[in-house]
Amino acid sequence: MDEDDTEIGRLLAGTGVSPGAAYGPAYPVVGNIPEPDGDSRHDGDAGAERDRAERALEQVAADLEARGVQAGGEAQEVLGAQAMMARDPGLADEVAALIDQGVTAPRAVFDAFKKYRDLLAAAGGYLGERVSDLDDIRDRTIAVLTGLPMPGVPTTAAEPYVLVARDLAPADTALLTRDVVAAFVTEQGGPTSHTAILARSLGVPAVVGCAGATAIPPGTPVLVDGASGDVRLSPSDQEIAGARDADQARRAVLSATTGPGATADGHAVPLLANIGGPRDLDAALAAGAEGVGLYRTEFLFLDRETAPSAEEQEQAYRAVFEAFPGGRVVVRTLDAGADKPLAFLPPPEEEPNPALGERGVRLFRRYPDIMAAQLGALARAVAGTSAKAEVMAPMVATVDEAAWFAEACRTAGLSSAGIMIEVPSAALRAADLIGAVDFFSIGTNDLTQYALAADRQVSAVSELQDPWQPAVLDLIALAASAATAAGKGCGVCGEAAADPVLACVLVGLGVTSLSMASPALPWVRAALGRHTLDQCRTAAAAARSATSAGAAKAAAWAELPGLGALAL
C-alpha cells in the first residue's frame, strides 16, 4: 500500500455483523505455508515416512478436536468436522501411496490434498466451500512435518488488536477472547459466516465483506464500527474519542435495561439463549437469559466412534434443565448429516448436495433407535426438575414428518413437541403443520439459504444470505400467524434474533420469543424496551413492503425511533 493510502481517516466499507465500536492496531493474517518441493524424494525408508505422515495428520486432528472442546459452542462443531477430514481413511491411503512412490511426506500430503481439493472445487456450492477447510488442514500438517510455525493468530497480546484477513479459519479464531481481539475485519463472508457468528458469541465488533482489508499494513491504527460496517484507518483523535464516547453511552443504555424481555407497552417477549451444552450456561445466566431457546445437542454426538451412552446424555441434559428452574429449555434433537456426519453411522448414499440430503429428522427416521435413546434420556433428565422441556426436530418439511416426531415424543414421555421452520415448504404450509405439534421455532439461517437458493457457506452469494430479504420475512410471517391462530408459540432461534433492529420486526411479525448468542441479549432487550408493539408491527409491515433486503432494513429503521439511543 502506498503512503497516500494510509492517510488519516481513510475509510473502507463492509457489512457490519456484530455491533459496537473498537480501536486497535491491525493484525493482518496473510500468506500460506509454502508449497513443498515437488522434486524432493525421501531416503528410501517408505515405512518411516508413512508413519511420519500418519502421526502428523493425527496430531493436527487431535489439535483441532482439542481446540473445539476448549472453545465449545459453534466452534466445537466446525472444528470437529475438520478433525474428521484429517482422519479420513481415503486421504491417508492416498498419502501412503504417494510415499511408496518415493515422494516425501510433506509433498505427498500436498498432492493428496490437491486431489480432494480439486474434486470439491469442481463440485461447487456447499462442497466447494469445504476447500478452505482442506487448505487449513493441509497447511497445518505440512507445518508439523517441516517444522514451520503453525498457521494461526496470537492468543495473547499486549493490547487487543483488530484481526484482519481474507477469511478466518475456525481453528485460528476458536480460542480468541475479548482480551486479545478488539474486532474482526474480513474481505469475505456474510451475516451467517463463521466469523460473524464467532464475533457475536464473543461480543466484539465485526465487519465482513470489506474490500481491500488485507492491504492494511500491520500495526495501522484501525477504528471498526460493527454496526455501520465502517473501517477507518489511522483515525484522528477526535474520531476515536467520538466513537468511544458513543460506545460508552451505548453500554450505559444496555446496562440500564434489565429484567424480562418486553416491549415498551409491556408485551412480553421472552429472551432466551442459544447454547451448545452445559459449558455455555454461565454466559447465558450472566446475560439475563430467561431460558434456553436452542440447545444444540449434536455436540454430544460428533467426533466420536460410538454414540454417547444414555447416562452421558442424561447428565448433560439435566445440567441445563437444573440451570433454569421454572424456565423454558428448548432442545433441538440431533441435527446431523451434511456438514455434521456421524462416525458411528454408515455414510449416506452419494449426495451431490448434502444440504438437501439426509439430515435432521430425516436421519432420525432412518435410525429410530438413536432418536428413541435421545428422547428417553431427555425425559429422564427433566424428571424431578421444574424446567419446562420443549423438544423440537430440525429440518421438518411435511405434516407427516411433524406428526411422526410428535408421536415419538409423546411415546417417550415428553409433553411438548415442536418443529423447526427451516424449509420453505414448512412455512408455506404452517397452518397444517401447527396442528400436529405444540410450537414452532424458526431457524432463519437455513430458511434464508433454502428460500434464496444461496448456500450460507458461499461468500459469492453472501448478499442473498440476509434474513432481511422480504421473501424471508414473508415466510416468517406465515409461520408466526399460523401459530398465533392456533394459540401456540412461534420463536426464532436463528442468527436473525440477535439483530436488535430485526428483533423488533420479528416481534411485529408475530414471533413470540427470541433466542440468540448470550452477548446479544442486552442489545435486543434494550431495542425492544424502547418500542411499543404497534411500532414493531408498523416496522414489520414497512419492511415487508420493500423489494430488497437493504430497503427493508431502512424502512424498518424509519419506524423505530428508539434505536437512536443504542447508536446502532
How is this structure best described in words?
The radius of gyration is 24 Å and the shape is globular. The chain has helices spanning 46-71, 73-86, 89-100, 105-123, 125-128, 131-146, 170-173, 194-202, 237-256, 281-286, 310-323, 361-366, 368-382, 399-412, 424-428, 430-433, 444-451, 470-485, 500-508, 521-529, 533-544, 549-558, and strands spanning 11-13, 15-18, 21-29, 161-165, 181-186, 206-208, 221-225, 230-233, 271-275, 291-296, 328-332, 388-393, 417-421, 439-442, 489-492, 513-516. It folds into three domains: 7-29 and 152-231, Phosphohistidine domain (Glucose Oxidase, domain 1, 3-Layer(bba) Sandwich), CATH 3.50.30.10; 46-146, Enzyme I, Chain A, domain 2 (Orthogonal Bundle), CATH 1.10.274; 268-566, Phosphoenolpyruvate-binding domains (TIM Barrel, Alpha-Beta Barrel), CATH 3.20.20.60. Strands 1-8-7-3-4-5-6-2 form an eight-stranded mixed β-sheet. It has an eight-stranded parallel beta barrel with strand order 9-10-11-12-13-14-15-16, surrounded by four helices. β4 (161-165), α7 (170-173) and β5 (181-186) form a beta-alpha-beta unit. With 568 residues, it is of the alpha/beta class. α1 runs antiparallel to α3 (89-100) and α1 (46-71) packs across α6.
